[in-house]
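seq:
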Amino acid sequence: MPFTDREILETIRMIELETLDVRTTTLGINLLDCADPDMESACEKIYTKIVHHARNLVEVANSIGEDYGVPIVNKRIAVTPIALVAAASASDDLVPFARALDAAAEAVGVDYIGGFTAYVQKGYTRVDEALMRSIPEALAQTARVCSSIALASTRAGINMDATVDFARAVKRTAELTADRGAIGCAKLVCFANAVEDNPFVAGAHIGIGEPETVINVGVSGPGVVRSALERLGPEANLLAVAETVKRTAFKVTRVGELVGREAARRLGSTFGIVDVSLAPTPAVGDSVADILELIGVDRTGAPGTTAALALLTDAVKKGGAMASSSVGGLSGAFIPVSEDRGMIDAVRDGALSLAKLEAMTAVCSVGLDMIAVPGDTSVATLVGIIADELSIGVVNSKTTAVRVIPVPGLGPGETVEWGGLLGTAIVQDPGAFSCATLARRGGRIPAPLQSYRN
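struct:
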């Protein structure tokens, strides 16, 4: 479908005045053929293959940005879950694999590489356990590696034993990176119904059904949607609001697919999907919270916020589906608290609590994202926070995730600064009561009745 002159002019305005950008161009690389009984050989193969395929990624992305005038903010890599690749080596310490990933990412100049990953929703293999144990050291010793664990799915239920282990890994990662505000935890996420073509970190990785290499693009446009709703005004009804968001998401998606297909062509790769997610940044005017307030709530977190977010997420998905047959990833609206200036202000003003955030995740496109909690939060409480969020995904057959950061030395209401896209977090209060007995029981929360769909 060719671009019209009007679309081109609208896109120029969105880029220049409304902070439209391609948030990430992510190159997926299949590493299954790098498996080797000798761990050192496997790591060498991983490094060599990544550098070979990704050596021109940054240059190509920059050249596309210059040619089309579209900012491409991040260039990233996603790989096959390392638990699958490392299984042949029989090693109990997978940190060397993380270091190989980190070295390759540094060599090609990308900001993050995702795929230190395992799927354990129904149980552990030996290598899954090894990867889980290796997470804290792997994230403490690397700068660019991101890790994700699939703990639950609608078809399997929730692996509570693995959830406890994950919570312990979060705590240990926070301790090992305490001097940097527990930043290691910002590179660690768990999922229900994990998506295998997600271009966004920390959950980026590619599934076993993906091509040898694939380009997945994540576009963003909170500023574009905000401007469109400002022009619409407060008197329009909610159907008009939804239609405005849908039309705006259509235009944003078209830009993303153009960039993705051109990047795939120049790299000799395959175009995969465009993820149409409203991904905020700490920059003024680039906030999902601002959009929710334009829809009609006084402050994000007020009554009506979940309904406004449901409208927004649905309209974004519909606009994306109209624009492209290759919409994938998570697609919808992200609510990472530390990365959204409006969300930060809402927490500071007491409008947005951890409980309200959990309710909002029932209708957004991911889950509890970039949530800071006190450093002395117990493992059992972390297990409860994670299990609650995963349950929303399991019961509703949607992807939900948790990226929680226990910041050593800080308590509720205090602030941690990470800078850049990670932004600023106000430490949330998880409450005075625990779920130690629930966490201690272990086992698996069974799959819900709606999982039987064949």
